Amino acid sequence: MDRRKQSLLIFLSVTIMVALMLTGCQSVQQAEVQPQSKDTTPTVAPAATYVPPTPLASRPPYQPRPLPGVQNWSGVSSFMFGSNDASWDWSKQNMGNNSAVRATVRAAGITLIRTPLTRADALQRVTAIEQAGATCLGVLHPEDAAQVVHMLGKRCNLYEWQNEPDNGGPNVNDYTRSWNQTIPTLRLINTQAAFIGPAVSFANLEYIHSFLQQTKAAGNLPDAISYHTYPCTDVAITACPQHIGDYTIAVQKVKTEMKQTIGQSLPLAITEWNYSWKPGQTPHDNDYMRQFTTASLQALIQAGVTISNQFDLASGAGNGSLDMIDPTTGTSYPQIKALSTVIEQYKPKQ
Question: Which end of the chain is more exposed for a tag (fewer CB within 10 A), N or C?
Fold first, then answer.
C-alpha cells in the first residue's frame, strides 16, 4: 500500500471515530434535557411574616406616660365618656355593618370605644370607630398582638392586655408573665401607644397587687390600671341607687393598693361598667337608666377615674339588655341619651 492510500485510510478512520463520538455526546445531552412543563401558572410567593423588633435585654425601667389623645375638659378626662363595641357575632347587625348605629354614636359624642382586635378584623373595627368619631381602645391577645399593633400603626394608640383574666382566664402569674414578655415589644412597634391592664372582672385587689408587684420588679409598669364593675347585679331597680357609692369605694381601694405596692398612682380605667353583667337584668329600655347613667358617671368623675367605658353600644350583649342603641335601627335607648347629656355638660364649647 502506497503512502497516499495509507494516509487516506487514516483520515477516514479518524473522521468516523469523531462522528461516532459526536453522536454519543448528543444522545447524552438529549437524555439529560428535561422537557418543559406546559403548566404556566405563576407561583405566588408566601405572604411575608411580620417579625417584631426585639427589646434590649438590659433596659431602664419603663416610666408610665400620659395617655395619648386624652383631653382635659374642665378638670375631667375626655375619656370618661366611652363605651364598648363588643363581639360582632352576637347580632347580625352591629356598629361594623350598620351606619345608623355609627351615626347615633357620633351624634351622642362618645369619645372612646373599646373593642376586641384580631388580625382578621382589626382594620374593619378601627375604621368603624373612626367613622363614629371616637378614639380606639383595643383589647389585645398574645397570639396576634404584635401583628395587630403593627397593622394599625398610629390609628390606635391605646391598648388593654386581654379581658377579665381572673374570670376563667390565666392566673395572675401567667397573665403577668405574658405581659412582661410581650408589652416591651409592642412598645417598640408603636412608640406612642399606652398599654393598660390587668382588665380584671371587678376591683380584684389580690390580682391587681400581684400584677403591680411583678410588673414593677420587671421594670414594666402599665400606663393605667383597669378593671370592670356592675354595681347593681342581682339588685332591683328600687335598691340600685343605694349601690352607686360602690364605685367610689372600689376606686379608693384600688388607689390605696397602688400607693402601697408601687409607691405611686397610675390612671384608673373602668373599661366595663353598667347596671348588671347578667343577661336580662339591665333595664336598658327603662327610663331609670337615665338616672343610673348620670349618677354613675358623676360618681366616677368625682372619684378621679380617667377612663370609663359603658358596656355596651349595640352588639346584642346580654341578649340585648346591655345595649344602649338598637343594633337594627340605630335607635337610642335611655342610657345613651343620658350619656350624651352629660357629655354636653363637660365638652368644651366650640
Answer: C
